[in-house]
Amino acid sequence: MYWLFHAQITQNSIGDFLKPQKIQEIAQLTQKDAARRAKVTGNPNSRHRIFFSSSSLVLFLCALTKFNSNHTRKNPHTKRSLGRSRNPNSMWAATCLASCCASCACEACKTAVSGISRRSARIAYCGLFAFSLLVAWILREVAAPLMESIPWINHFKQTPSREWFETDAVLRVSLGNFLFFTILAILMVGVKTHKDPRDNMHHGGWMFKIICWCLLVILMFFLPNEIVSFYETISKFGSGMFLLVQVVLLLDFVHGWNDKWVGFDEQFWYVALFVVSLVCYVASFAFSGVLFHFFTPSGQDCGLNVFFITITLILAFVFAIVALHPAVNGSILPASIISLYCTYLCYSALASEPRDYECNGLHRHSKAVSTGTLTLGLFTTVLSVVYSAVRAGSSAAVLSPPSSPRAGKPLLPLDGKDEEEKEKAKPVTYSYAFFHLIFSLASMYSAMLLTGWSTSVGESGKLVDVGWPSVWVRIVTSWATALLYLWSLVAPIMFPEREF
Known about the structure:
This is Serine incorporator. It is found in: Membrane. The chain has about 500 residues and is mainly α. The chain is built from 18 helices and no strands. The chain starts with a helix and ends in a 6-residue tail after the last helix. The N terminus is likely disordered.
């Protein structure tokens, strides 16, 4: 609106600008601008606030018009154009006009920023989590010499290896991150509507939150080693829970994808479903062949790797047979996607084997794999957390929608106050507590990812997610995914009276 008034003033004198026709035109434009900003911000109340400021401006202009006309009649020799007048009253009027325009612009910007902040809260939390991963990675690389000189950390008779201090730095950052999101999860328990004061706490106060996060991370470096060791132990269980949440969400995603395409009930979508399923199965079998090539080199006894890859192939065939069985009434699309995902988990498990293991075909490229694995691991973790939080939160609807299009609609239009109360009474779109809980579990998982499940020694300490614990976690996750998928197929047959 400021640019609108500025253009009007520069093109015309203030006297012409204050004509009743101009005032009416400005009033209409302010109403349209207020409605447009309300649509952009997604907050209908912003329209009332902006229009209130604009209406105040119009009333001020009307009063100023009357003052200008009276002043002209009392002083006939005064020029009608206030823009060319040196009269102090005219200058005062112009100053007030500029101040009022600035006030309207500030109110509009404040409302717009408020709407943007509300929509981007989840993105901000994801950005903070990604930043915590970056801090943990940097400290893992550079903080070891400093931590060796801290007496309450290095109080051993014999100084531990450098890898121990690197692991300890990552765990302390992860512990601060875990406490930050856990506290938020506890505070957000029971938030149902936007009327709850904690809704503003979830979306706003970012300067205070960042300060609290920094203080928590710094304070973790003053804790004794026993507390950090205890957190390391529970992080392994928390990481497993995070991986389990990912599996459940993946199953929900593939079943939803299949139901959506089948629901179209058109030949095109059936063909698309078949093509995608075929591509996934071909990719899964081809990927298994690559695994046999790299992780079962000739001349080596690699029975464990052969066992892992063979079990993965058998599971892929079992998925297809069970899904296509008439009694199950399943679909080939979820079976193919789960097969490909299990093959990927098998690869990630084999790639996590120690670099000096003779059956790991990647050990010759350990230096190159270190950077690639690090980047891929961090990127995958951030994406997993974003999807897990958004998907899980949006699926937990607090209140179901009305049964008919007119249900819940008032017979008479509401006034501004009633509409504002109705807006605040709307249910939240996702579970805030579960949203932060996912980040708490992801903080544990990221610590295990960066430390190789806290067992990295020697060369593996410079890699990400390398070591036998990581291998077994990935393999067990693959088997758990297979069992959960098969259970989702046979459970409705075994327990027909229950809903799944």
